[in-house]
Structures are given as C-alpha cells and as structure tokens.
Design goal:
single chain; 319 residues; alpha/beta; Rossmann fold; two-stranded parallel ribbon; 36% helix; AB_hydrolase_fold; AB_hydrolase_3; hydrolase activity; GDXG_lipolytic_enzyme
C-alpha cells in the first residue's frame, strides 16, 4: 500500500521523498553491503565525553572474537548498573559506534556501564550467529562485573533489529535462568518474520519498508530456510508461546513503520501475560524517524519518551 507524503507527520514530510529514494537504493543487490562497509569506517571511534574501550569476547558457538565496545562515564565512583545495548540495522548492517550518540544519552540520563557487541550480521553468519553473540555479551558482562565496574543489575535494550535481539535475549535469559535483566527496552523491535499478504501491511514508508524487511529476514534466517537451523522464538520472538516472566518493558513505534503491527501485538501479549509495559505510538511516523534526518518536534518527543522512561525504570529497578 502506498502511503502518501501528506499522511506522514508534518515535521517529517519535507524529507520523505529523499529518504524513500534511499530505501529504493538499498534494494539494489550489493548496495546494503556498500552501506555496511561505509558504516564500518566508524569502528573504534570514541565518544569524547566517555571512557571508551574495546574487548573481544569469545563466541560460545565457534570461538569467534566478538568485538565489543564498552562505554562508561568518566570519573565515575563505585559500581554502576550495566546496560547491554544491541544496535539496529535489519540484522544485515551496522556497528555499535553508529549508536554512540544514543549510548551517550543513556549514560548522561543515568550513570551506567554500556556493553555494546558488534554482533555478526547475516552475511557473516545468519541466525543463530547474531543472536548468540548478543547473548554471549550479556553472559560475559555478568561474569566480569568487577572488571567492568558494574553491579549485577543488568538492563538490555536496542532499536529495530537491536530491539528484536533484545526480545530474543530476554526470552533465553528467562528460559535458562542464567541472568535476570531488571528491565528491557526493545524499541520498535524486528520480531516477526512472517510477511503480511494484506495490502494494508505491505507499505512503502521511508527508511525501512516491507520490501527491505523481507530482505533482512531472508538473510538472517537463511540457514533456517535451508534446513540447517530450526526456527524458534530466539530467531523470531513473536513466535514465543508465552511472555510470562519477562522483565518490565519500555517500547514505542510509529504507526507508519512496518513494525507497527508486531510491536502492538507484542505489547498486548506482554500485558496479557502480566508484564509491566510502558509504551506509546507516534502517529504519522516511519521507522527511526527520531534519529534519521530531521525529526523535528515529533522526533524530539520520541527521544524524550526514551530517556524519561529509561530514567524512571532505572530509578525503580536498577539501583
């Protein structure tokens, strides 16, 4: 279904055409790899206001060294809660350094140590590669609290595919009992691999549309579809039979985002299973509207929701 420019929030309309062109380019074979190559030029870039370092964590799958960025406030005193953050990128691109501004904002909102793995993207190793890399980063943080200078109060979060990985990691942590995150933040999470056939859900907003969603899932679940791996809720968290026992949750989504329907279903199921949820919907907003391009006042409002909600849950659950 085509979404007309005037259907988007007024703050976003001036950039819809340009961002739609980028979404079309990303469907050209090889273009996503080019974008990912360009983004990887940020690797190792520090945030001036933070103490930044890099560690390699051995993957429990194959001993692959998971390059992991660690951020903490300068001159911090005493152990701090730990946020394990998973960056977005449709399971096919991105590096944690691309989320450094977000990470800085989290740390400035409430002091914490941030562990951000550069998990493997689908072209390197499809599921369970990225998922297990993220889970291994959480377990590594749990086992290295003294080295990290953090407490045993773990928060997990991420945007888009990072939100999907957050939801998946939360499920495995619950099922295994290995660690108990005090809350999770799967923002507009990529959690449902099924692609809608009804026209209302086959949409063409800027940044990330239904066509790109198919590309992302096809790459991430390549080994599943070729019979080498089983499809489980750790691959696509919407498949979970129950969400009981998951930690308190913060999320939001725009109603012009392909993830709108699955996010709303996720919120409804979490609530129905007794999980405390803080969520909202931003009308007329496409995917990542608050961080890509000029989000205007509506983008600032989404960012305020993010960091205000983080502060409230941090004060209640992390200290």
């Amino acid at each position: 279904m085509h979404i007309r420019d005037e259907e988007f929030h007024p703050d976003l309309q001036p950039q819809v055409s340009a961002l739609r062109r980028m979404a079309r380019l990303m469907k050209i074979p090889g273009f996503v790899r080019l974008v990912d190559w360009y983004r990887r030029k940020e690797m190792g870039k520090d945030v001036e206001s933070l103490d930044c370092s890099t560690r390699n964590i051995a993957s429990s799958l194959d001993n692959y060294p998971i390059r992991t960025r660690i951020y903490r406030p300068k001159n911090s005193v005493g152990p701090l809660p730990c946020l394990v953050y998973f960056h977005g990128g449709g399971y096919i691109m991105g590096v944690p350094e691309g989320s450094s501004e977000l990470i800085r904002r989290f740390i400035e909102t409430r002091p914490c140590v941030v562990v951000a793995p550069d998990y493997r993207k689908a072209k390197s190793r499809p599921y369970p590669g990225g998922f297990q890399d993220c889970y291994d980063a959480l377990i590594w943080a749990r086992d290295n609290t003294q080295t990290l200078g953090c407490t045993d109060r773990f928060i997990i979060g991420g945007h888009s595919a990072g939100g999907g990985l957050t939801a998946a990691v939360a499920l495995k942590a619950r099922d295994s009992g290995d660690v108990s995150p005090v809350f999770q933040m799967p923002f507009y999470p990529m959690i449902d691999e099924t692609q809608p056939s009804d026209p209302d859900r086959n949409i063409d907003p800027p940044v990330w549309d239904t066509g790109l969603n198919r590309i992302g899932w096809s790459a991430y679940l390549k080994d599943v579809r070729e019979g080498r791996e089983e499809l489980s809720a750790y691959a696509a968290p919407a498949r979970a039979s129950t969400f009981k026992g998951l930690p308190p949750t913060i999320t939001y989504v725009g109603d012009k985002d392909p993830f709108y329907w699955e996010t709303q279903t996720y919120v409804e199921r979490l609530t129905g299973d007794g999980v405390e949820v803080v969520s909202t919907v931003f009308e007329g907003c496409y995917h990542a509207f608050e961080y890509i391009g000029d989000g205007g006042d509506i983008g600032a409002l989404a960012q305020k929701f993010t960091f205000d909600s983080f502060a409230q849950y941090y004060d209640r659950f992390a200290i």
